């Protein structure tokens, strides 16, 4: 399984934390499945349906695993290609250095 490209504690450009600062990979690693779904729903309000989120729930995707997701892994879990690409691109954005 691939690991995130950022080191623990690095700042993430894409989003902000609940305290208003930038998210860190350490924060994301603590997310549960519902928090991941909340983030995806807020960031991409029209991209996903309940079927997509059920894949995340069924596979018990939490923060650490979320940061290592790829389009191929998501498709292997049964997610359609479109939503899988959106999530994979989001993960890349969250884990790439500015």
Automatic annotation (TrEMBL):
Task: Output this protein's name.
Answer: SAM domain-containing protein
Quote the SUPFAM superfamilies the UniProt record gives.
SAM/Pointed domain
Source species? Jimgerdemannia flammicorona
Q: Where is this region: Disordered?
A: 1-24
Its ancestry begins with: Eukaryota, Fungi, Fungi incertae sedis, Mucoromycota, Mucoromycotina
Give the top-rank taxon of the lineage listed in the UniProt record for this protein. Answer: Eukaryota
């Amino acid at each position: 399984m691939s690991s995130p490209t950022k080191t623990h504690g690095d700042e993430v450009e894409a989003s902000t934390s609940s305290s208003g600062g930038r998210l860190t990979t350490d924060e994301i690693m603590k997310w549960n499945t519902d928090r991941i779904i909340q983030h995806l729903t807020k960031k991409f309000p029209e991209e996903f349906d309940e079927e997509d989120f059920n894949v995340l729930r069924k596979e018990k995707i939490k923060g650490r695993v979320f940061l290592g997701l790829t389009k191929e892994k998501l498709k292997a879990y049964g997610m359609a290609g479109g939503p899988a690409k959106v999530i994979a691109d989001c993960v890349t954005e969250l884990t790439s250095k500015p």
